Amino acid sequence: MGTAFYIAAAVAILSTIMVITRYNIMHALLYFIVSLLSVAVVFYLYGAPFMAALEVIIYAGAIMVLIIFFVMMLSLGSQTAGDERSWMTPGVWIGPSILCIVLLGELVFLILQPAGPAGEVRVVEPKEVGLSLFGPYILAVELAGMLLMAGIVGAYHLGRQKKKIVHRFLETSES
Fold it and tell me: What is the value of pTM for the model shown?
């Protein structure tokens, strides 16, 4: 399992770096899907096949398709890639780089720690997850659904208003 974990982790890290450094949004999204799939492999290797399946189905499947749909609906072109290049000056990278170095140090510290006894592990069945999602956490599920719907409507209106010169409420009527 050690070699497979390190390969999956390396793929996750490299693909995430590619997400950050790509100017073309579609290329970045494809690398992001690869990153999510490699995280699913890590979940599977650590004995959480249900979590790995959820990672693939929900994140790499549904959410990424939704994000790609938003990007296609907004019709981002070469002008936005040029704008992004001008925004990404070297000074912008300092804060996130420091945070990543702190996280890397924490990860190295945790990996070098001697393995202690594992606590009591309880297997959570998919039925229990469903009952909790649609039981005590139904409000959070409904709010997430409304947030996604608001994102779809917002993306539609942003993409639609780009093509108009003047909004219909700002036009003067000649009647």
Answer: 0.53
Per-residue pLDDT, averaged over 31-53, amounts to 84
Helices assigned H by DSSP within the chain: 2-21, 25-45, 49-54, 64-74, 78-87, 94-112, 126-133, 138-163
Q: Is 119 helix (H, G, I), strand (E, B) or coil?
A: coil
Q: How far apart are CA 49 and CA 111, in angstroms?
A: 22
Mean pLDDT over 107-122 rounds to: 70
Mean pLDDT for the stretch of residues 140-161: 79
Q: What is the DSSP letter of 173?
A: P
Q: Which two tokens stand for residue 167?
A: 């909004």
> Are 72 and 152 spatial neighbours (Cβ–Cβ below 8 Å)?
no
User: Does the 1-80 domain belong in CATH 1.20.120.1200?
Assistant: yes
